[in-house]
Amino acid sequence: MPDGLTLYGSFTSSSTYKPMLYLALSGLPFSFRTVNLKNGVQREAAYLAVNRYGQVPALRHRGLTIVQSNVILDYLARTTGHFEGANEQDRWTAREWLSWESDAITNVAKVRHFSRFRQVGPAVMEHFRPPAEAALSFVDAALGGREWLVGNACTIADIGCWGRMVFMAEGGLDINRWPSLFAWSERIKAMHGFALPYDLIPKKDTELGPAAPGPTASAQS
Ligand SMILES: N[C@@H](CCC(=O)N[C@@H](CS)C(=O)NCC(=O)O)C(=O)O
């Protein structure tokens, strides 16, 4: 296993986007290995040896294998220091948001999944859409009068929560309904290295270097 960072993922996956965005915003070099979900590569023995759950993403680094997107964000923040909370309270609060994210914002990803990849009956949609909207409203309220979810700067909480909701429009959830959330998304989009998933996540195995210095990403998004 190489010592450098290797991320396994898929370009349609919000769970992949979360660590991918972290790495892009941090300007860290890493290798990307694509796992073709459509062809079922995630269920092949070789990949199950990396991620027992048969899901993307997975990260390998210095002989370690880390899975679950929020654990990967936690690992990256601890080991590289980027997007970590400014003090101990903020570091715990950022992880609290990530844990809540996987309970609540995951409903946004489900609504998008059922809209985009799998036809379901209206009862299923009616089950998932209200908690998805409630999660977005909760983030919107939390961002009223503040720029970031935790402290005064972008942390893994922002990257994890935004990353999971990034495809919300594909689920028919219009971001303009949540003004503070929209303003926050624009703040994230203005960061150097930012790109939306289909522009960021490669469809092929790729070696990625540090982002070249240049104009802020609002011009790219
Ligand atoms: N809790 C996991 C969720 C990962 C997940 O749901 N990954 C999806 C793509 S977004 C996947 O790999 N699906 C493939 C499958 O279930 O067959 C995380 O945050 O990493």
Summarize the topology.
Elements (H helix, E strand, L loop, with lengths): L5 E4 L4 H13 L3 E5 L10 H4 L9 E4 L2 E4 L1 H12 L7 H17 L1 H11 L5 H21 L13 H10 L13 H11 L7 H4 L5 E3 L13
Parallel strand pairs: 1-2
Antiparallel strand pairs: 1-3, 2-5, 3-4
Helix pairs in contact: 1-3, 1-7, 4-7, 5-6, 6-8
Bound molecules: glutathione (GSH).
The site of glutathione (GSH) has 13 residues, from helix 1 and helix 3.
Question: Main traits of this protein?
Answer:
221 residues, alpha+beta, Glutaredoxin, Glutathione S-transferase Yfyf (Class Pi), Chain A, domain 2, 2 domains, five-stranded mixed β-sheet, 5 strands, 47% helix, 9% strand, binds glutathione
In words, what does this structure look like?
The chain has 221 residues and is an alpha+beta fold. It has two domains: 6-82 and 194-219, Glutaredoxin (3-Layer(aba) Sandwich); 88-189, Glutathione S-transferase Yfyf (Class Pi), Chain A, domain 2 (Up-down Bundle). The protein is 47% helix and 9% strand. The chain contains nine helices and five strands. It has helices at residues 14-26, 45-48, 69-80, 88-104, 106-116, 122-142, 156-165, 179-189, 197-200; strands at 6-9, 30-34, 58-61, 64-67, 206-208. It has a five-stranded mixed sheet with strand order 4-3-1-2-5, with helices on one face. A hairpin with a 2-residue loop joins strand 3 (58-61) and strand 4 (64-67). Helix 5 runs antiparallel to helix 6. The radius of gyration is 17 Å and the shape is globular. The termini are far apart. Mean pLDDT is 94; it is low at 214-221. Bound molecules: glutathione. Glutathione is lined by residues 13-15, 37, 42, 54-57, 68-70, 102.
